[in-house]
User: Fold these one by one.
Assistant:
Number 1:
Amino acid sequence: MAWGKRADVIVHEREPFNAEPPRAALAAAHRTPLDTWYVRNHGPVPGIDPAGWRLRVGGRVARPLELSLAELRGRFTAHELVATLQCAGNRRAGLAQVRDIPGEAPWGPGATATASWTGVRLADVLAAAGADPDAGHVAFEAPDVSRIASPPQRFGGSIPAAKARGGEVLLAWAMNDEPLPAVHGAPVRAVVPGYIGARSVKWLDRITVQDHPSDNFFQATSYRLLPPEADPAAAGPGDGISLGPLALNSDILLPDDGARLRAGPATVRGYALAGDDREVARVDVSADGGRTWTQAELDGPPGPWTWRLWRTSLDLPPGPVTLTARAWDSTAAAQPEHAAHLWNPKGYANNAWARIHVTSV
Amino acid sequence: MAWGKRADVIVHEREPFNAEPPRAALAAAHRTPLDTWYVRNHGPVPGIDPAGWRLRVGGRVARPLELSLAELRGRFTAHELVATLQCAGNRRAGLAQVRDIPGEAPWGPGATATASWTGVRLADVLAAAGADPDAGHVAFEAPDVSRIASPPQRFGGSIPAAKARGGEVLLAWAMNDEPLPAVHGAPVRAVVPGYIGARSVKWLDRITVQDHPSDNFFQATSYRLLPPEADPAAAGPGDGISLGPLALNSDILLPDDGARLRAGPATVRGYALAGDDREVARVDVSADGGRTWTQAELDGPPGPWTWRLWRTSLDLPPGPVTLTARAWDSTAAAQPEHAAHLWNPKGYANNAWARIHVTSV
């Protein structure tokens, strides 16, 4: 299968390659196997010779750096961190059901996954470069050129400097203890836990310390939440809400949407991710549209950087049943109820309650 | 009027004194006048002689401190910060409409307000005391004894050490450039922007650097979000979600709920607060229950620590009209729709869409 992915991935686009796993596959493990990881690409996978690859660190730094892979791995302490990534377009299908979203892939709940990442801390690299502590942003660039961008340009984006200095942001060369696959950004990618996947720039080759957010198309114009009445074709740099930290989200992974089940006790499983630097505090599941809720059991260690897989058992009456799930974060904020009220022209950030429809017989 | 408050405050309780202003009063200014500020007390206002007052700083510190007011003001640099506080019970009335909440005051939208605060940074005091950088929490205590607490005890609570080290947390002796009034915590109170008001401990006299959150009743047992089915009388330490950072919220201040207006264009005004360290990104207002929205104009400077007052004009059709408002934060998260789905036994953290009912003729 293309790019080492399992045979049953849902391919949204072949070139650039964009694919997600079916729901059930994500439920199998806290750390998602590499063949099950979603892929969100904006351009062709660049062919990079690791021997010739260099990471350039510049901008507002006292000592600009140009590091080979051996230098990056040799000069800085390696760290391993388990972290979840999630695409800003995850669960867009729920928005597209409300109103059409032309030109954007109808991602289901599978544009998120969890891995252990091995790499060096961006904070350590910035310290070695003597990054100006007053600079507000750290920008990433990579050689993949997207035909989506206007004008055509290399992929890029930025994060606030305070986030960049957090020990959780890595420049990673391994994923689940295997070398980073080409489709996931080899030889080195940024990993920015708690932020939309687009900021975890793959095939990273340039880091710039600067005063302002990146003016790259994917920071200034795309990955922004426009109001419902906006014309996305007319949207320009700075319009809408810039997406960075992820909002609280969850979905149901098992049973599958549309499944036929035996009436009676059924196991329901899913994921929840608090986003930003928050933790998942509670997940509620309902078989009666939210009239009554059962608290799910949360798997895995608590923490801000990874999802919590959850499970519970609900008693299903015979007939059509809507299963609903919602998460609460560590500020006691809950997900909003309806995708209809979150609809936006580019279909980002759908964090409405999860709903699937099953029939029990 | 009691405690220097304006004549039209809504008094929820005389002893301990608990009161909030009417909606319209809050809309008048970005910085709320002192006579308009809500008061949330858990016990009698303690009579403190400023000359005898001492602030003790202990726990995991290298150099325990005991500071008089003159020493606190003389040893550390004074800072001024405009910050909004908000009670965790703000807008409880909206939850009580869903289902009764016995024993808790039915606060409207007025348990929030904004002031400029003058004081020293908690971070500077902790540095002077040589606080252990590995200690995770900073606890506050004050002499007001609450009959609500079980067993009866001094009021207290704690915040994470990382928050305590943020420059925005002050030990304040002035409010809107006036000496801190007795009912608001004279001679010195904590001001913890972005967190529930209960953490901005008034009449502060003890700070303890420690490994764990405070075991005070108001941290361990109260100010926790219980699931709907929980019996609050049976809830013990550690139950539910501990409230700390505020969740995104907003309400409508003008027109008043129940007002009769002329049909046609009407000015609608209100507030929004992102909570935690987030900013308000957008406020939408609707005269048709959320079918169509108008973006409000946001007053005042952007920033994480203060509310944004907002205003817009809507065309009101003749007849009964429901006005609805909702805010979006800088992660593109929106408020949830219905208080019914947020109901909890102690009535905390109602951040459902704002709704008021008016009649236009």
Number 2:
Amino acid sequence: MMKIAALRAPREFEVLDAPMPEIQPDEVLVRVAACGVCTSELDQWQGKSSGLSYPHFPGHEVSGVVIEVGKEVHGFAPGDRVAVWVTNHGFAEYVAVKAEYCFPAGDVPLDLALAEPLACAVNAVELANLSLSDDVVIIGAGFMGNLVQKLVQLQGPRHVIVADTRPDALERAKKMGATRVVDVRNESLPEVVKEMTGGQGADVSFEATGAQTPLTLMGDVTRMSGKVVIVGFHQGGMRELPLAYWNWMAFQIINAHFREIPIIMHGMRTGMRLLTSGRLSLDDLVTHRYHLNEINTAFQTACDKPEGFVKSTIVMES
Amino acid sequence: MMKIAALRAPREFEVLDAPMPEIQPDEVLVRVAACGVCTSELDQWQGKSSGLSYPHFPGHEVSGVVIEVGKEVHGFAPGDRVAVWVTNHGFAEYVAVKAEYCFPAGDVPLDLALAEPLACAVNAVELANLSLSDDVVIIGAGFMGNLVQKLVQLQGPRHVIVADTRPDALERAKKMGATRVVDVRNESLPEVVKEMTGGQGADVSFEATGAQTPLTLMGDVTRMSGKVVIVGFHQGGMRELPLAYWNWMAFQIINAHFREIPIIMHGMRTGMRLLTSGRLSLDDLVTHRYHLNEINTAFQTACDKPEGFVKSTIVMES
Amino acid sequence: MMKIAALRAPREFEVLDAPMPEIQPDEVLVRVAACGVCTSELDQWQGKSSGLSYPHFPGHEVSGVVIEVGKEVHGFAPGDRVAVWVTNHGFAEYVAVKAEYCFPAGDVPLDLALAEPLACAVNAVELANLSLSDDVVIIGAGFMGNLVQKLVQLQGPRHVIVADTRPDALERAKKMGATRVVDVRNESLPEVVKEMTGGQGADVSFEATGAQTPLTLMGDVTRMSGKVVIVGFHQGGMRELPLAYWNWMAFQIINAHFREIPIIMHGMRTGMRLLTSGRLSLDDLVTHRYHLNEINTAFQTACDKPEGFVKSTIVMES
Amino acid sequence: MMKIAALRAPREFEVLDAPMPEIQPDEVLVRVAACGVCTSELDQWQGKSSGLSYPHFPGHEVSGVVIEVGKEVHGFAPGDRVAVWVTNHGFAEYVAVKAEYCFPAGDVPLDLALAEPLACAVNAVELANLSLSDDVVIIGAGFMGNLVQKLVQLQGPRHVIVADTRPDALERAKKMGATRVVDVRNESLPEVVKEMTGGQGADVSFEATGAQTPLTLMGDVTRMSGKVVIVGFHQGGMRELPLAYWNWMAFQIINAHFREIPIIMHGMRTGMRLLTSGRLSLDDLVTHRYHLNEINTAFQTACDKPEGFVKSTIVMES
């Protein structure tokens, strides 16, 4: 038997005993070390998701250690440290997962081996296909915006301008290497961008908020024929665009969302190569750690986003 | 002296005498054979364009014969038949134009050598970067939609599905080679596309109307990770998009608009290569021809769009 | 029991009785209608391949009718006409094959549903990423060169210039739509290309022979920054290149060879979409048909390449 | 009058007095601060270039300060520090150059503003279109190899493996950030690459020597469907390639050479953006500085390549 967190009602995770998962011939059994709390799970926890049936078993940002391998599995052995891709049941002591969805974690601390959200950011940035010395604007300096910023900075940009409304987020972005941070409550982002790019506008801009106002702002900071990359998830109704102007500016609009498994795997592989080789580290982004029996607190904190909060994770090992 | 049409007031072209244009060392003098009437000029003629000062000299879809070449010009000689790029003053007997903006017309009838609008369509289709056997939807079967259709059909698509509300436009699209035409007043385009693509949706869809309803429709006919190409000019206020869904579907949104001169030249060169080699013909698209002194009628007809109308042109030669 | 052709010694196929193949849950059983003879199999038949162990069971260009489906198979049912990808054992009455390696053949005659070689040509041409109105040179007008030509012509080229040394091959290329054919024994290909391209050279050139002389010729017919696509298989030692010149000309050299299964499947899917929609037909390329018990004659003919020969296939059904 | 270095015979530069260059309306007059010695000029100096007529005026890696601007020039003013593109006459106190060939040098020391060779390296690396976490091999750790290495490292690679035969070059590559350096006299590069890439081979390999042996080696260190980028200039006869194997491996072979002026300008602009923003510095690469009257020594040193030598430049200002 093992422990697993089940959401039984809004805001009510309960830690249950459940049978150990059994593995198929192409799967491995992983003892979970950590499982990140994803923003997309907060609505479920708060009871805002329609059509959710209880008990519900979220958790998909898993890392851990291989305990057992199926008879058809090559390339993994018990004791291997891995980041894995599962779609649920991740807030548990053990998961069974296809070997092809596992990636070596090398010496990366397992609570920092957040391969799944990193894969999203990798794929978004690769889709933008940056060129050397591009000027880049990132609107939204939360966890996803931070990941995008780190990956953009790995690709030889000239200026990286980060905009947000939270002073602590902007301070973190600055510390992470932004050329310039802009508190849009106090400064005009278009004016800053115009000044820093010789009046031209950004080559590429990323929107990582999911809200209307920043979306509209993208059109005012991007150069003609530049790229507008939508990373945020725009829930809550229609979005308005001044399409006559956006069309006249010949923007390439990239929806940085991915659902094909091979693409997700590509992003996870790339992200883990960057982490394991030390080119990238997430140690300044995982700010809050909780034990499995504190999972309701972990979710509450992720909803509250106290100052300094970026990402919380459930740490399974004692 | 030569004749030139000047717009002196809304709906009032007057044909004036004007001095012959003088050429610079890098220019050629072209005796105009024909100059197409562009949809973008209709608002000006109708008095709907703000900020227009009279007299106004439109006309930018010019073809003709080289009469004289500047002393720095290589590659062109008097007598050469050419399609040229000018930005105005085209409804005239002569234009002076840089030699690098001229393209050989070969044996193409000059009233069919519509290089400038063809360049727009070429660049739109190239931006879409079609793959062999793509399923393509084109919404809007006017002149631009027709050009896009012809170019798409040159690139090895599987299905080409054309939607419009005008029976004569759909009949023409069918005759031009559409796999299937859909009168959206009577049929559901999404259902037709779904059926013809095995439930998947189009690989690429082109919107060539500039209106909200067809724009919205694009999202319902395009496959996940497919391309949505906006060719129409979306004037008249904001456009609404269900961005949460479009983002979830990972559409690549391409604004097929171009303002850089090298790109326009690329499109003109490509278009004229297709016309002069016989791969492409526009003889079914130029439906109405007028003499210079009938120019007000030509514009009125282009506004009225009578049944069977696609494109009108001013033919300068007697 | 079923019939299958086994190569028991050089030039000695024998038709044997063998047990019917059994299918796995993800496989289908296909009654073979036809299996093409591939050039790569001729060396084996002639005893020129080192390391071949007998009996050997070639045959990988299979089409037929689904007879039985495994319990995990969706999307196929008995009676479906399909083109399939197998790697051997294709000269037989039945093959077992994964359902995901099967593609609907629609109404295409099964002896013309040559999906596997078509996939090679599709992938080669897609890798070349042609632009509208490109000038294209194809050296080698055998079966692969013909497939490349047909696919190039589907993509809106300006000139398609085909070179070979066999009058019947050139005549066929001309009939298939080449703008110009060149017998390199009598004419200078570089001079013809120069004249037809205004002195510039071809945008893309394909080499489909596998020999040194045509390879060298590629550099003399391609424009600066143009694409040199190597389709032929260059066996028999090193090849010499004037790399200083090729580098100075900034050629992009594309090795059009593919071994990843997803890419092969992509090519098969695309090819079958073109065949089933009628955009493409191979009926002028399959010139020789033989029954299974005539398989040695089929191979001998493919080696001899008599006048008018392009491709031979083994037709299984009576 | 001004000073300019003229090559009057092999190994004999003479510093002459010459009239000040006069500028055209679209040009600027630049007081030269430094002009780098390019490897391509060494053959000329040594008398190995055929067809050279004396006096010859080399020098094309120029930086300096704007002294005067033509009347049509916008965007530059006297006093502006710039890197410029000229094709010759650069070892002089002044050059006249089109304003569009000038790029702001910001605060970069002018002897380190080597925009022209940097443009070559930028364009080579951009053509390779690296992906995040690529494993990269660079053969040849001279000046061009070093520039490529610096630019590759700006783009988020996983491993950067540099091979050469000179211990000082390898030490420098290591100091510049190579993951691993390989002295090919003592170690097997293919074995090192195999080990570091999990047996797969490099995603991208750059050849920066221009010699046969390293060229051949590229095929042994690159993964299937990987990119082989030829940066070196392969003079001195034909090159041999095992094309059967390279074709089977589906290598994409990129000739990283450029002659179109817009592409050169793109590379210069990108390079200068990287230098002026501090993302890139060449201060460890310019190892030897000489005054104009020491120009023969500068060239002799560049031929001798003493230990520690990377690049020499002529510094014009006192």
Number 3:
Amino acid sequence: MNKLLIVGTVAFDAIETPFGKTDKILGGAGTFIGLSASYFNLQSAIVSVVGDDFPQEYLDLLTARNIDISGLEIVKGGKTFFWSGRYHNDLNSRDTLVTELNTLADFNPVVPQHFKDADVVMLGNLHPIVQSSVLDQMEQKPKLVVLDTMNFWMDCALPELLDVMKRIDVITINDEEARQLSGEYSLVKAAAKIHTMGPKYVVIKKGEHGALLFHDKEVFFAPALPLEEVFDPTGAGDTFAGGFAGFITQSENISFDNMKKAIIHGSNLASFCVEKFGTERMQKLQKGEVLQRLQQFKALTQFEIEIES
Amino acid sequence: MNKLLIVGTVAFDAIETPFGKTDKILGGAGTFIGLSASYFNLQSAIVSVVGDDFPQEYLDLLTARNIDISGLEIVKGGKTFFWSGRYHNDLNSRDTLVTELNTLADFNPVVPQHFKDADVVMLGNLHPIVQSSVLDQMEQKPKLVVLDTMNFWMDCALPELLDVMKRIDVITINDEEARQLSGEYSLVKAAAKIHTMGPKYVVIKKGEHGALLFHDKEVFFAPALPLEEVFDPTGAGDTFAGGFAGFITQSENISFDNMKKAIIHGSNLASFCVEKFGTERMQKLQKGEVLQRLQQFKALTQFEIEIES
């Protein structure tokens, strides 16, 4: 089995949506990526940090999905990263209510020895210095490095972000962030400019409006599945990234055609994530449901037009 | 050849975008629908009204595209409908600067005798009473009636709109209007509710985010082609509707599978419309360009995933 190395937060989230609110529940980019990637045939490990307030039950939940947590540092007397947010009525925007970095403030990622030869590295949204440090520790050049980031690092750590971007193959970023990073409004132009910063593949996430994959002059689009109800968007982008990276790891194929499939798999898994609070839906998701919804994606997007030449 | 009857404004537009502004140029829903549908193999006619300030050159332009204008009333001493608008920087919203109804205020549509047996009727965005009046004049039940409308009629003529909606097969409407009409935020729920108002097929236009086609439990999605530059969105929705109705007319097939193709053809034609001011791009568009871009739509959306069962 191929190896996927995941770096990302493992955290507590407290979420308010128009449909309800939660206490502190399991969250974090690394968690969502790991759960999503676990639907593929691969070995995965999460590099992250938590405090000793992090429940054993959550650790068990990750290991039950065959996620190696030997790189998940547990800081004695430390507190786990905590984020709290409130979504607006349309669920397309949110206010952050609380961000407590806690143990994340001094996070020094350590890649487990047996994952220093990982085939694919998924750098979840974290300080670009942490992302770079993980790449520094690899003993073998990964077949593919995927990086997710956000506007916060463009505002506060742009030089470090630009540095790590030179070392990656794929960037996943949302539409507004792509515009900010490139200074271009058109996503086609934004992607072209981001290409020149390093990544050969640019994935622009548009939330409920789907995702675009750019590579040189090629472009592919995957819609989000139209749902009766989006309950909680938290983690959808990470679930998408986890599905993308997971499928690439399993298939060992980094062609553009295979990346198209990876984008569909990512969108498919993300469509489940938003149906319940936090990781709830992903925890109980069955492989049969995943396959069935892939059929829906086909029905949603595939057509037959014979083009006369 | 099958017949397509088009009802819609033939007008003057004056447009301001971040890229420039125009004087009074050719515009109107009927115009855009007619130009777009003319890329298919069919007979079409426009029912509309203008004043005698409407230049012969514009009339010639329509007849050169084989559009029958015997139902285009020219009111002596009357002035042509005039709309002026200014787009915001992101081109996703606009302010109406001027609306002069002029001859449109007393428009009494008269369907030419030789189009009272049209196969497909495309009711462009107009007062629902005008749309109903056209249906009243048909001597043979059309194979398909498509209706486009907007929020203005929901605000000012809702009972009349609900009446005409009971007589149509397909409604095309944008996302915000679908929400307004249904009182549902989720587009899946909105489409289901709009179904119950009459139309068996609901097309929800999302501008740069593509279009959704709903029919019972089935749903199909066509993205908008990602473009380097959107120059002027005016008429894109009408061009989409014209391509949709035009393809259905040509193909004489109202199955869901064929409507999928029609949605793609509509999106394809609309992707040209936005590249220049007003009808400029559509006037010069060559069939070869249309076919070539269809290939781009295939590359953009088609993928191969074998789903294990």
Number 4:
Amino acid sequence: MAGAFGVALAACRGDDVVAAARLLGEARPTAVNLAWGTGRALAAYQAALGRAADPEHQDQDPQRLAAGAALDEARAIAADDAAASAAMARHGLGLIPEGARILTHCNTGSLVSAGAGTAFAVIMAAHQAGRLTRLYVDETRPLLQGARLTAYEARRAGIDYAVLPDSAAAGLLASGAVDVVLTGADRIAADGSVANKVGTYSLAVLAQYHSVPFVVVAPVSTIDFGTATGAQIVVEHRAAEEVTTLGGQVLAPAGSAAYNPAFDVTPASLVSALVTERGITQPVTTGNLRLLNTRPPERKSAPVDVSVEL
Amino acid sequence: MAGAFGVALAACRGDDVVAAARLLGEARPTAVNLAWGTGRALAAYQAALGRAADPEHQDQDPQRLAAGAALDEARAIAADDAAASAAMARHGLGLIPEGARILTHCNTGSLVSAGAGTAFAVIMAAHQAGRLTRLYVDETRPLLQGARLTAYEARRAGIDYAVLPDSAAAGLLASGAVDVVLTGADRIAADGSVANKVGTYSLAVLAQYHSVPFVVVAPVSTIDFGTATGAQIVVEHRAAEEVTTLGGQVLAPAGSAAYNPAFDVTPASLVSALVTERGITQPVTTGNLRLLNTRPPERKSAPVDVSVEL
């Protein structure tokens, strides 16, 4: 959605749209949806430019026509995203027991979606159904998306929540205080490996060790059949300063190196279930993912495979 | 050591020494050494007060005599601590392979010891022996003892180190970049359960999952035979603000609750080896701990069992 609106913005401004699409699509290596949305908007833009050459459009500004098409495509993606959120919430709710205590990581709510999000959409559905007793929010170092964003969304929704240091999740799980762990995903390889915010893999191992279900919630557009295995997913490594400083405050000696991968990769064997807008896959295997991908979408404009030449 | 010097300070100042000892000894519930050192200094103080009643001491100020005895005891504990550090380093070095990449948590070096510390003493010995390729330092949220203290000690010692978010340790272990995990301990129950800084248990589970040795380094005074099992260890829970703010900076919405245990408890089955000043115990079992406790100390003034009436 961000990629598509970015392309539409570049087109409306009269920027070099292909260059903008390339910049946006390659801005971060790990998430697959970014390039997918960017590609869709660019394809719409280029198709409209082609149509503008037709005699019937000769009285219209081709750039304006194409920018409008890119914006329409971005809006369609947003509408699909909202519909997908609602479908994921509906499917995922079935996995949430009465009185559930849910642990989540990073931010997956309406701040990153046109709807209620992915994992957070299921949390919201559980809250609205009266099934949610407590939400535990990993603060999600280093950028604190849990403490800053998910806690904000939980508070706004009136959910009873507590923020915790990421490393406290193990003891929390051991104490029996968590019924299910819910996270999103940035890219799912064809073998079901899930790339998501750093710390997700840690939670997956700990959830399995404590026999707590580890559920990933993500739209089908997150599945990348072009990436065969988790080992092939490129994990973005970021600046040391994200770890060694915080809002200008120095946290470690000057010049300290840091190991700061933005994501980690969880093998499919640790994922209890994958919730998508087309239903739930359990266990997560290549075959089941392909089956899911060929299942008819619930809305006509749901994500389709688009090949775009950049 | 801090408890004993605290009692000595109270005695020198002319404060109520018994009240001060009680306050210090009960200041934090989880670590056992604090009450142990406090008790030793108080016992020395009270014994000296008793001796001051003898005719041979009638020309001396009883308070001054007793304060001197408390200070001497604190100094003896410090000397023992330095000797214990050296012995732990010597024993622990045997577990460190050539070219080792070590992951550690929290702070266990000279800032919390009269010597080189516990886990960090072994790291220093490995560094001095040329066996340490790289030290990975968990930042150790929420109070960042790793980023603030261990990184400082590593830098000062010229060790090649990198700070990491605690939740990134799982991916690091999965990548095969860690040969051994080393931590300290605040209390070891009679069943070998290890209470230590929150996140230690997380590392222990992850280390076992990735078949990496998880080694605890702690003096014998850390073993508390009065606490039968890990479940009986009282874990200190601290203020939400430690998680939701940092140095005055707000990290989460105002009023956010937090789950903020200062420690967690690792079962003995996850501890590959316990390194003490009296040798290495492997596996960590009640029987082996009792054997270790009865092994003759390497120095005459090493920790002894002292029963003190507060």
